[in-house]
Automatic annotation (TrEMBL):
The keyword NADP does not apply. This is Lysine N-acyltransferase MbtK. InterPro entries: Acyl_CoA_acyltransferase, Acyltransferase_MbtK/IucB-like, GNAT_dom. Pathway: Siderophore biosynthesis. Acyltransferase required for the direct transfer of medium- to long-chain fatty acyl moieties from a carrier protein (MbtL) on to the epsilon-amino group of lysine residue in the mycobactin core. One of its GO terms (biological process) is response to antibiotic. It comes from Halobacillus faecis. Keywords: Antibiotic resistance. Residues 16-178 form the N-acetyltransferase domain. It comes from the Bacteria. Pfam families: Acetyltransf_8. One of its GO terms (molecular function) is N-acyltransferase activity. The keyword Coiled coil does not apply. SUPFAM superfamilies: Acyl-CoA N-acyltransferases (Nat) (SSF55729).
């Protein structure tokens, strides 16, 4: 399984990496969707056969890419990077052609509350900004998920407005490339000298 992106994060002194999710990962992702800290927000705690169909459809969807996130090579998180154009979110604001969005969850409970969410999110946003035409990454966490909203803000996302999506009331948030790079590139350069 090839790594799509890898970076050493000096703040946690760990190597963060992402690889594309595969059909073989379905049982692991299904397990995570049934965790108490996940299912209230993702609402995908379905019977395995139904989840398997949902997951296969998500893998085949060309407007998004599914990833598994790793810390020091251990798979512990699930990510969906998507193009806003063609997504239900495009009706919530006026997106540019290459705006990208992000969904994430930390599946392994041992990694919760340990300060890993921000470095992982920062690494994924850096991966998304590798696409030169992308100038904005968008998030729409569940409005009840104060912890995630706080992590998005610490990463450089700005709250825009509460929005209603088909499956949740969400907080629309934008991370502009310029804001992200001015906040994090000096730290990245220092860590990788």
């Amino acid at each position: 399984m090839s790594i799509e992106f890898e970076i050493y994060d000096e703040t946690i002194q760990r190597t963060l990496s992402f690889r594309k999710a595969l059909m073989e990962d379905v049982a692991l992702v299904h397990k995570w969707m049934n965790e108490d800290h996940v299912h209230p927000f993702w609402q995908l705690n379905l019977p395995f056969d139904r989840f398997k169909k949902h997951y296969r459809k998500a893998l085949d969807d060309t407007h998004q890419t599914l990833y598994l996130g790793m810390i020091d090579g251990e798979v512990m998180s699930y990510w969906e990077a998507y193009w806003v154009k063609g997504d239900v979110l495009e009706n919530s604001y006026s997106p540019k052609a290459y705006d990208q969005g992000i969904h994430l969850l930390i599946g392994e409970k041992d990694y919760l509350g340990s300060g890993f969410a921000l470095p992982l999110l920062r690494a994924m946003v850096r991966l998304q900004f590798q696409y030169d035409a992308t100038t904005k990454v968008v998030a729409e966490p569940d409005i009840r998920n104060d912890k995630m909203i706080h992590i998005f803000e610490n990463c450089g996302f700005t709250p825009i407005a509460p929005i209603q999506l088909p499956d949740k009331k969400a907080q629309l948030m934008f991370c502009e490339r310029e804001t992200f790079e001015s906040r994090w590139n000096d730290e990245y350069r220092k860590a990788n000298l």
